[in-house]
Amino acid sequence: MPDQRDPAPYDALLLLSFGGPEGPDDVVPFLENVTRGRGIPKERLKEVGQHYFLFGGVSPINEQNRALIDALRKDFAEHGLDGLPVYWGNRNWAPYLVDTLREMAADGRRRIAVLTTSAYASYSGCRQYRENLAEALATLEAEGIEPPRVDKLRHSFNHPGFVRPMVDGVVKSLAELDEDVRAGAHLAFTTHSIPTAAADTSGPVEGHGDGGAYVAEHLDVARVIAEAVREETGVAHPWQLVYQSRSGAPHIPWLEPDICDHLEERHAAGVPAVVMVPIGFVSDHMEVLYDLDTEATAKAAELGLPVRRSATVGADPRFAAAVRELLLERAAAERGLPAERCALGALGPSHDLCPVGCCPARAPKPAAAGADSPYA
């Protein structure tokens, strides 16, 4: 068997995330970055930004990324990888991806493994990150800087280090409910709603269809968690995959039902309590804090429906260990060696290299770290 502590050919790990404002003055410029090219007026962005202003204009995602980086460095050091540096770059706010890649090139990093803070297949959760990578690499080339090679690690949605912390979170949330409603509690597995057209074309071409890989992957993880909860508690809780954070025009179909509508429906059906399980999110960022902890929790209170919200994986040491395992398995594969590829559920480990036609863009753009990459 290969040395499971050898990261070669990689000489760095890049944590690539969405980014978020760090104060009230950052909110509108941040949203302008997010919506660039859509022609949204500044006044409308100020309205949208109220979610951030409720929390002092600070997105929690940045501090959560710092905590994850600390956890990764600690795990790497404990497993003989303390010589592998961890960098951080964002798509929409500082530290910007292009600036981080410049720093990495200046530091002599030539082959980079990339972890994105999105665990599932979709255009916005995978290919758009790859397009951002290609754009940043092109900028380096235009500046006369030889760009490093970047390889995106496979999706982490069904790795045990991603799933097990969420199982524990559900069990803990159920225990927090009053005993008279606990056994009948419903599990609402939540993720970001996306346009149905984007969902249908998510994942490799051969899997395109109703919901595509995006829905299939979430359903598979939800089944795994629900079954693990049954094994631990002795109760088979009913469950459903639901959606949140819709932001598109009303006439465009998006994945449904919305979590608030779902709470109303479950209450009308006589369900005594609900545990909201944000399986679609790596950390407790703004869409978890506002859409679930604020908006959905207020809806439940209005209905008189007891609810709890279970934890995301965040900087859990098991997730940090999963990242290390994903990096080392990919490193072994790049060296032509066998490696264990951990995955729970029925779908198995996802591909290392995004194939042509996987999660296609609305308008074709170059994308790095895939079979169609101009930076192979």
Q: Give me the count of strands.
A: 8
Q: Spans with pLDDT under 50 lasting ≥5 residues?
A: none
What structural class do helix, strand and pairing data support?
Answer: alpha/beta
Task: Write down the secondary-structure element order.
Answer: EHHHHEHEHEHHEHHEHEHEH
Strand order, sheet with most strands: 2-1-3-4
- Supply Rg: 21 Å
Biggest beta sheet summary = 4 strands, parallel
Helix count equals: 13
Helix content: 40-55%
End-to-end C-alpha gap: 27 Å
Output mean pLDDT: 95
Which word captures the global form? Answer: globular
Q: What portion of residues belong to β-strands?
A: 5-15%
Walk me through the structure.
There is one protein chain. With 376 residues, the chain is α/β, with parallel strands linked by helices. It has 13 helices and 8 strands. A 4-stranded parallel β-sheet has the order 2-1-3-4, with helices on both faces. Strands 6-5-7-8 form a 4-stranded parallel β-sheet, with helices on both faces. Helix 4 crosses helix 13, helix 5 crosses helix 6 and helix 11 runs parallel beside helix 12. It is globular, with a radius of gyration of 21 Å.
Sum up the structure in keywords.
globular, single chain, four-stranded parallel beta sheet, alpha/beta, 376 residues, 43% helix
Ordered list of secondary-structure elements with their pairings:
Layout: E1 12-17, H1 27-34, H2 42-48, H3 50-53, H4 61-78, E2 86-90, H5 97-106, E3 111-116, H6 123-142, E4 149-152, H7 160-176, H8 179-182, E5 186-192, H9 196-200, H10 212-233, E6 239-244, H11 259-268, E7 274-277, H12 286-303, E8 307-309, H13 317-334
Parallel strand pairs: 1-2, 1-3, 3-4, 5-6, 5-7, 7-8
Helix pairs in contact: 1-2, 4-13, 5-6, 7-10, 7-13, 11-12
